[in-house]
Design brief:
- The complex is a heterodimer of chains A (279) and B (378).
- Chain A contains 13 helices and no strands.
- Chain A is mainly alpha-helical and 279 residues long.
- The longest helix of chain A has 33 residues.
- The longest helix of chain B is centred in the middle third of the chain and has 14 residues.
- Chain B is built from eleven helices and 13 strands.
- By secondary structure, chain B is of the alpha/beta class.
- In chain B, strands 5-6-7-3-8-9 form a six-stranded mixed sheet, sandwiched between helices.
- Classes of the chains: A mainly alpha (279), B alpha/beta (378).
- The interface between A and B is medium-sized, with 25 and 27 residues.
């Protein structure tokens, strides 16, 4: 059997397990509720703006958003592009980028550690290469997280269309594009979570260590931002949202390559350590 | 069967004389008889010198997709295998060979290194030193051993949220059993462990005994050539333990079975050969008759009454006689070979005893595995 088949079987089982577990279902429901709440909140803010600032024309709003996005991403072309995006979808995109690590840490902390705690992993390592098992675990987690975020985004597209904030074609095309951009970034977070989970045999320790690892990366990012040390900011996966959303192909390719490289690094490290360790 | 040991304590009862052609190989036992009668179908002792390679020496895992396989006579080979955990040496230079088709026991007290040795055979632990081969491959070569090795780990919990059926089907899937045979194979092994009704039961809801049998089922799925069973009856009630023993016996001759257990009576009953471990070293190994000396001595318990020891000493085939007055146990040592076997000696000795009105309360061949283990281990 090829390693690809092994990985596929492990990932499929992981996906099934995640969506059947109480934890997976609760996180899916919370994500949907959170997404819907944000959409409704934004709609209320939009209504408030219209009521309180009747003189603000759509053109002026567009210009203000373009300006804000240009400042945020440091690129006028990107600013212009994002100014055309339905506001709700853009907000949900940023929420997804920033809250996905939390979702991943809660879903993935016992991904491997749970199997190692009571040596359940032994049933798998007899039948699959350890690297296939580890990649399958990562892939299963990533697919689960991607499915949850897609469901959340889809709910918001529907709300957006129903409320008449954007035509269906615009909402879906922008929605899909923004969701796809979250995928490489969540892949890196899943890689980190899988690595941490594979180090610990006690799930609660793995959870705390995952939180700690994510927090440390965020602190490194803040230090990099404060003192303009780009190399430090690149350690934080969310940094690459600006690359992946960019209209320039070279920036987009750089962001994608960085995410793939970081994912490969974390999953490779976890596979290597898992292959060498006693179970 | 040859069964080599590298030991610090040189204690094997059946160690060959210095002039023997294969000094590291345990001496052959002529026409060895099982120490305990069992219901298992009769089979040749693969540890006997003249034993032909078992018919099933080159097995093909049923249901698994065909692949090229090395023909093997030795299913498992350990060469000077050592395992250290930090400063602690759990297994120290163990050398063993297990012939294909045999049932082999790993025996020893707690902390002897049985489970560590077993875990290295299964690829869960990696040896610190030495070479370990299963069917000619390193246990870490999963692709080569897929579907050829089944393992019942001692303390590995089943995934609690999986249903028994889907867990077994998933195991079959990973063993490369064709899609159209997976469910059938899973149902077959589940039926074999008497668990037909558990297909839709979650593994987390199974009792200890049921879980053990499902674990056994996953070890047997796909009819593997080598099955490693770590404490297969530990914690089971007597009835379930008996059923598991019967199941293991039913597999005799179909595959190589390695059984690690504290239950010496169980091992004596089902194993052809064994290695006794103590403090990480093999202190004795060989066929069961060699270990229990069942082809060299007989033990007779007498009730109070006459005990004609001198008459027994005079029997021509008797080498030496020991009499324990307190336990009223007579131990008769004899030279095997030249037409003399344990059964003949028993017949002759009992004849003398009965002629002299001795009251016989028990007869056994050899000293029993339990006594042997007690002698060899601290």
């Amino acid at each position: 059997m090829s390693p690809i088949s092994e990985t596929r079987f492990v990932a499929q089982r992981e996906l099934r397990k995640n969506f059947r577990s109480a934890k997976g279902i609760v996180l899916l429901v919370l994500s949907l509720l959170g997404g819907t709440a944000v959409t409704l909140l934004l709609a209320w803010v939009e209504q408030l703006k219209r009521d309180k600032m009747p003189d603000l024309t759509p053109e002026a709003m567009h210009a203000a958003r373009e300006d804000a996005m240009t400042r945020a991403f440091g690129d006028p072309a990107t600013g212009k592009l994002l100014a055309d995006t339905p506001e709700v979808l853009l907000l949900v995109f940023f929420i997804t980028i920033w809250l996905t690590p939390l979702l991943i840490s809660l879903l993935g902390f016992d991904n491997v550690s749970g199997d190692m705690q009571h040596k359940t992993v032994r049933y798998w390592t007899l039948r699959t290469r350890r690297s296939s098992y580890m990649i399958g675990k990562w892939l299963g987690l990533w697919t689960t997280v991607s499915a949850i975020t897609l469901t959340m985004h889809a709910v918001i597209w529907v709300v957006c269309i129903v409320r008449g904030e954007a035509p269906a074609a615009t909402a879906i095309s922008w929605g899909l594009r923004l969701w796809v951009i979250t995928l490489p970034i969540s892949a890196v977070w899943c890689g980190i979570s899988t690595l941490v989970s594979s180090i610990f045999k006690t799930p609660i320790l793995a959870l705390l260590a995952t939180f700690a690892a994510f927090f440390v990366l965020w602190v490194i990012f803040l230090i990099g931002l404060r003192w303009n040390i780009d190399a430090l900011t690149y350690a934080y996966p969310n940094t690459f949202d600006g690359f992946l959303i960019n209209k320039r192909i070279d920036r987009w390719m750089t962001g994608l390559a960085a995410c793939i490289g970081m994912t490969a690094l974390y999953v490779g490290a976890s596979s290597f350590m898992f292959t060498k360790r006693d179970l | 069967m040859s069964d080599e040991t590298t030991t610090a304590k040189e204690t094997p009862a059946s160690a060959p004389p210095p002039a023997a052609p294969e000094p590291a190989v345990a001496a052959p036992a002529p026409a060895p008889a099982p120490a305990i009668k069992s219901d298992a179908p009769p089979m040749s002792n693969p540890y006997a010198k003249d034993a032909a390679p078992p018919e099933g020496a080159i097995f093909v895992a049923e249901g698994a997709k065909k692949r090229k396989k090395k023909p093997v006579e030795v299913a498992i080979r350990l060469t000077k295998v050592t395992k250290r955990f930090g400063p602690k040496t759990a297994v120290d230079g163990v050398t063993l060979k297990v012939r294909a088709g045999s049932v082999y026991g790993l025996i020893g007290p707690n902390g002897a290194g049985k489970t560590t040795t077993f875990s290295m055979m299964a690829g869960f632990l990696q040896p610190t030193e030495g070479v370990l081969e299963v069917l000619g491959y390193s246990p870490m070569q999963v692709d080569e051993l897929r579907s050829r090795i089944g393992v019942l780990p001692q303390d590995a919990l089943l995934p609690g949220n999986d249903k028994v059926g889907e867990f077994l089907v998933h195991m079959a899937q990973l063993q490369d059993i064709p899609a159209d045979r997976r469910e059938e194979s899973a149902r077959e092994v589940l039926a074999e462990v008497d668990g037909r009704d558990w297909w839709n039961v979650k593994c987390g809801s199974l009792s200890h005994g049921m879980a053990k049998r499902v674990q056994l089922a996953q070890a047997l799925i796909g009819d593997p050539e080598v099955v490693l069973l770590d404490e297969p009856t530990a914690g089971l009630d007597p009835r379930v333990a008996y059923e598991v023993r019967q199941l293991i016996k039913s597999r005799k001759g179909r595959c190589t079975l390695i059984v690690s257990s504290h239950n010496l009576q169980e091992l004596e009953e089902i194993c052809d050969g064994a290695a006794i471990l103590d403090r990480g070293r093999v202190v004795a190994s060989g066929s069961m008759s060699e270990l229990t000396a069942s082809s060299e001595e007989i033990r007779i318990k007498l009730s109070p009454g006459p005990s004609p020891i001198s008459l027994i000493r005079d029997l021509p085939m008797v080498k030496r006689v020991e009499w324990d007055e307190e336990r009223r146990e007579l131990v008769v040592y004899f030279e095997r070979g030249q037409g003399v076997d344990a059964e003949q000696v028993i017949g002759a000795v009992l004849w003398v005893l009965l002629q002299n009105q001795a009251r016989i309360s028990g007869v056994s061949k050899g000293r029993g595995l339990e006594q042997r283990v007690m002698e060899l281990t601290d």
